[in-house]
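Protocol step 4 of 5: obtain the predicted structure for the target chain.
Materials: sequence only (see below). No template structures provided, no constraints applied. The aim of this step is simply to have a reference model before the mutagenesis design in step 5. Sequence pasted as it appears in the construct record:
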Amino acid sequence: MAFISGRLVADDFYDGLPWIIGLKRFAPEVLEKGLCLVFHPLSQGVVKNVSSQLAGRFEFTGSEKLLVHSIAALPEYRVRLRTNA
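Step 4 output (structure tokens):
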């Protein structure tokens, strides 16, 4: 998930492809306040309710995987060409 000042501006479910966020629409705000990225690992396992009368609690049994190869801000430009045909 991507946040600016606590406001969710983009999210992505893992599909094996790079996550691309168009930041131009947030340019003034993101330059002033920054961008907060939050990642959650892929989980494979079971969540068990181990609550007692004193407290509600859940435990996760299994494995989690999170691997971030890189984070980069890359400019992207578009050009439309017309011919006089």
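Step 4 remarks: The beta strands are 2-4, 7-10, 36-37, 42-49, 58-65. The chain has a mean pLDDT of 87.
Proceed to step 5.
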